[in-house]
Amino acid sequence: MSEIIYNKLIRDKIPEIIENTGKSFKTRMLNDEEYVKELYKKLNEEVAEFNEDNEIKELCDIVEVIHAILKARGVTESDFENQRLEKLKARGGFDKKIFLESVEK
Prior knowledge:
57% of the residues lie in helices and 0% in strands.
């Protein structure tokens, strides 16, 4: 029997889902350093998937990974939101659809 190699971080319920199909699989638990590294890779993967198909469900995956990164780095969601709002106040958002073409040297 052949196997497909994934070597990537997966959601917590994926082993149960695979198990319910009757297929065998191999997993291992990551240490904290590996986990953060894999979260960053997962974020890039999810952004690439969103760029490919523009599905809202991919944005949900991106947000889920961001929440996991915050938790792994010891940043609360309220701390993150406060930082986001500070940056919004200082630099603005994207509502005006401004596209910067150039700046004089």
